[in-house]
Each structure stands twice: as C-alpha cells, then as structure tokens.
Automatic annotation (TrEMBL):
<feature type="domain" description="Bulb-type lectin">
    <location>
        <begin position="404"/>
        <end position="527"/>
    </location>
</feature>
<dbReference type="InterPro" id="IPR012334">
    <property type="entry name" value="Pectin_lyas_fold"/>
</dbReference>
<protein>
    <recommendedName>
        <fullName>Bulb-type lectin domain-containing protein</fullName>
    </recommendedName>
</protein>
<dbReference type="InterPro" id="IPR036426">
    <property type="entry name" value="Bulb-type_lectin_dom_sf"/>
</dbReference>
<dbReference type="InterPro" id="IPR001480">
    <property type="entry name" value="Bulb-type_lectin_dom"/>
</dbReference>
<feature type="signal peptide">
    <location>
        <begin position="1"/>
        <end position="32"/>
    </location>
</feature>
<dbReference type="InterPro" id="IPR039448">
    <property type="entry name" value="Beta_helix"/>
</dbReference>
<dbReference type="Pfam" id="PF13229">
    <property type="entry name" value="Beta_helix"/>
</dbReference>
<keyword id="KW-0732">Signal</keyword>
<dbReference type="InterPro" id="IPR011050">
    <property type="entry name" value="Pectin_lyase_fold/virulence"/>
</dbReference>
<dbReference type="InterPro" id="IPR006626">
    <property type="entry name" value="PbH1"/>
</dbReference>
Length: 527
C-alpha cells in the first residue's frame, strides 16, 4: 500500500495518523505462533498477511507439503525459519510431494532482504522423480541482502539445489547475498534418462555480485558443486565439496560461463576442500576460463581472480585447469598432494581430446595453456604448461570394463545403434555394411585398429541401418539378420549360454552352461 499526502492539502488528523501507524505496525508484526505441519498455502498466507519484515516461523519437526505452488516471499525483509533456530534434525521440513509438477520449494527472486534459515528443504527427487524446471530454492534477481543459512537443501528435481539468479540489469544487479553454513546435497544423478534429458544438477548456482558463499558442506553434486556465473566481487571461502559416492561430477568450482560478459573481477576462491570419494569422482576441481567446459566460448573471460589455499583430495581428474583467460589471475598455495594416482584407477579418458588424454595419463593435476592467457599471472610452481590446446576438459567417464557378457536372449543391437560393447581401449560395433567389428583403440592417439571382424557384409541394412540386427538368442546362437534374412550365425544353438566380448584374445567367445568355451571369433561365422 502506498499512502500519498497532498503537500498543499489540510493537515492529517489524529485519527488519520493512528490509522497510518496501525497499518505500518501490522505490516511488520511477526507471526505470534509457529506454523505446524500442513500445506504450503498456510505459509504463503502468513507471508502475504505479514508484509514487509514479517518473520514466519515453522514449528520444530513440522512438515510443510508442496503440491501445487512453492512458498513465495511477498515483501522485502521477510524471513522463513524454524522456531528456535535449531541446527539438527528438528529443523522443519519443506518437501515437494510426489505427483506434483513443481520443482521449486521456495521462491525469493527480486525481493531484497529475505532470509531462509534453519530449514530442511527437500525436492524429494527419489519419490517425486526428476523434472525439468527451476531450482529447488530460487533467489536473486534485482535484489540485495538475501540470506540462505543453516539449512539442509537436497534432492532437487531439476538442475540445481540452490540458485541465485542475476538480474540482467547493470544498474540493479543481484548483490550482497549470503549463503553460509548450509548442508547441500545430494543434487542430481549422472547421465541422462531414456529420452536423452540430462539428470545432473548443481549444488549452488551463483550469479550475484559482492556476495559471500562460505562454510557450506556440499556433497553428491553431479554437475558443479558451486558454479560461479561471473559474480564479480563475490567470495567463496571455506566450503567443503564432496563427490557422490557412486556418480560422476563435472566440477567442484566452475568459472566457465559468460555471465556479466565474462567478468569475474574480484572473485576469490580460498580455503575450500574438494574431494572425490568411493567410485565417484570430479572431472575438474576448479575450471577457469572459456575453453575448459563442454561448450567452448570464444569470448575471453577476465579477472582479476584469486584462487588460493584450496585442498584437493581423492578422485579428481584435474584439480585446476586454466584455458582462455585475461585480466589477472593468482593461483597459489593449493594442495594437490592427496589426489588419487594414477587417475586411470578411478576414471577413463577414452572420449577426450588428445591433450586431455596425455595430461590424464601423466596424472597432471594443475594445468594451464599459457598461450591462451593474457594479463598478470601468478601460478604456483607445480603447474604444467601443456603444449597443445584442448577446449573440453570435462570428458572423463567411469573406468570401462575389460569384458562384457550377455546371457542368452539378452543381446539385441541394430546397426543404427551401432555400439555393441564399449570396453577399455576397445570398441565393438555393428557397422552400416553389416560387418560386426572389434576395434582396438590407442589410448593416446585414439586411432582405431581392427582386431577382428565377422566379415560377411550386406547392402540390405536399410536407409537408416536399422534392418541389420545382431542378437544372442534364447537358444544360445549368435545371429545377424539383414533386410533379406539371416546373414550369418555361430552355430551354437542348444549349447550357448553366455556371449563374452573382451578387449584381448579371444575377443569374442560363447560359453556353455559350465562356462566352457564352445566358440570363438577365430572359429569364424557360418553364412
């Protein structure tokens, strides 16, 4: 409400003054009682009624269900918190319900001074399922002084657990944000779903200027632990970022996006710990520059940026990579002595560019491509100046197996699908000419050399190659058909139980129920 007074009109009466004071007072009154378990609509009603400065508190151990709308701040300087500000499991829970089409639980964009404190915010991904949309908590925009602290934030359905978005306005940037002492994660899964939609997610996606993101415990992120979208003047101090126990994560810190026209000036990343654990790993500990990520940007990002006294532990492909940077960079005092070596013990670089493979095979941790860097530069002495430019350092995958087995009835691959088995330094594919071929792959040059082939070829695979199909039937016979009928088989019907593809001799064999070999590729196929 805006009250206007005509400066040339009559003076305000006492009744009018009392009315104004009453309205202002009501807008600032905090809720007298905490809100118990129930729907999000109850919380939204309290925020709407409270106005600017309202403190809406949830009762300890309360559960607030999100079904058809997120909790939305409605005025500046509002607070949503648990009564008593506990830091344990009695913090109230805000959770998205299965069946909902909502991805955000709390929405604070474009509302200055709002606070999210001492809550448990759960996107409920395992039960509500992944869903494309906004982050679990959305903050930022043209706002200042927003605080997210002492929360548990986990299981986003979408691309990020916590997002502070920029405003897109130079005169009114997101600024003075505070993200401290939160426990964040897990966030996302590795890979893609059957429709090709990516499943990975960030822990914190941060685009605000002159802000602080510090002392957060972030784990199980599968995109970036903390993604810095420009965020000039912001400091990222004392955070712990740990990989998933099982899944791949792209990076601990990513400074790889073109927000603010590539302006990262004044960003400080210091005293953080980045750790890869279990069979999980991070491709990168800290990626810096426009030629590091999967979509290289020809613009040169710029600082000055300071990256100091960070510790890297365990399964990290490359601790720090710098490529295509300008305007000042200091990278000193970072400890990589506790990273896992060799890198090949936890990851595979078969799909990477040549320089990435070379650095991976040498277990190099601190990497810079100096011809791409201009301006003042202070790098600690253990950096490797790589000789060749590689623009995609986010390319590692889990170690590939030496062999892959299929039970009778479990293998069916078309030439359109092509890949039959992906093995360490070896690839088996059904080609568009109907030839089933095993290729040895040079781990450094990536050159493919045929190691074996079924040999019969055909012109009847169809325009999209889908008519050529290799199957290991329920009868134990390995067969290829084309559009005209059967092209070849192994003659193992009634005997075969398992087909095994290997990256070493005998390469391809069929085993009986006792595990004895009844056929190998050296025996040839029957046309």
């Amino acid at each position: 409400m805006v009250l206007e007074v005509d400066e040339f009109g009559p003076p305000l009466t006492g009744t009018m003054l009392r009315t104004i004071v009453s309205l202002v007072g009501l807008a600032a009154i905090a809720a007298a009682d905490c809100i118990p378990s129930g729907p999000a609509s109850t919380v939204n009603a309290a925020l709407q009624a409270g106005g600017a400065g309202a403190v809406v508190q949830l009762c300890p151990s309360a559960v607030i269900n999100i079904t058809d709308a997120e909790i939305t701040f409605t005025a500046e300087n509002q607070e949503l918190s648990t009564e008593g500000y506990p830091e344990d499991s009695t913090r109230a829970t805000v959770i998205i319900e299965p069946g909902s089409n909502i991805t955000s639980a709390i929405w604070g964009r474009w509302t200055s001074g709002v606070k999210v404190l001492n809550l448990q915010v759960d996107g409920n991904r395992p039960n509500a399922a992944p869903l494309s949309g906004d982050a679990l908590i959305e903050m930022g925009g043209g706002a200042s002084g927003q605080v997210v602290s002492y929360n548990v934030i986990k299981n986003t359905r979408s691309w990020s657990c916590l997002h502070y978005i920029g405003s897109g306005q130079d005169y009114n940037p997101c600024r003075d944000g505070t993200v401290t002492n939160n426990t964040i994660g897990p966030c996302g899964n590795e890979g893609s779903d059957d429709a090709g939609n990516s499943l990975w997610a960030d822990g914190v996606s941060f685009e605000c200027t002159a802000s602080e993101v510090s002392y957060n415990d972030i784990s199980g992120t599968t995109d970036g632990g903390i993604v810095v979208f420009g965020a000039p003047g912001s400091h990222f101090i004392g955070n712990s970022i740990t990989s998933s126990e099982t899944d791949e994560g792209f990076g601990g810190f990513n400074l790889v996006d073109p927000s603010y026209n590539g302006n990262y000036s004044g960003v400080v990343i210091s005293g953080n710990t980045i750790k890869g654990v279990g069979t999980g790993f991070f491709n990168l500990g800290i990626g810096i520059g426009s030629h590091v990520w999967s979509n290289p940007n020809d613009d040169t990002y710029f600082g000055p940026v300071t990256v100091t006294d960070n510790t890297f532990i365990g399964n990290i492909g490359f601790s720090i990579v710098v490529n295509h940077w300008s305007g000042g960079l200091t990278v000193t005092g970072n400890d990589v002595s506790k990273t896992t070596t060799p890198s090949s013990s936890f990851a595979d670089a078969s799909n990477c560019q040549a320089q990435v493979k070379a650095s991976f095979n040498a277990s190099e941790q601190l990497i810079a491509y100096l011809p791409s860097i201009t301006g003042s530069l202070d790098l600690q002495s253990d950096f490797t100046d790589v000789p060749d430019n590689s623009t995609i350092w986010m390319c590692l995958q889990h170690p590939l197996p030496d062999s892959l087995s299929f039970a009778a009835g479990a293998l069916n691959v078309t030439a359109a699908q092509s890949t039959v088995a992906e093995l360490e330094n070896f690839h088996v594919q059904l080609q568009g000419d109907g030839n089933l071929v095993g290729y040895a792959i040079d781990p450094v040059t990536s050159d493919w050399t045929p190691a074996w082939a079924s040999n019969p070829q055909t012109s009847d695979c169809g325009s999209d190659n889908s008519l050529c199909v290799v199957t290991f039937g329920a009868d134990g016979d390995l067969v290829e058909d084309d559009g005209a009928g059967q092209l070849w088989d192994t003659g193992t019907a009634g005997e075969g139980q398992t087909v095994v593809f290997s990256n070493a001799s005998p390469y391809l064999e069929i085993l009986d129920a006792d595990g004895a070999s009844v056929w190998t590729i050296a025996d040839g196929v029957v046309q």
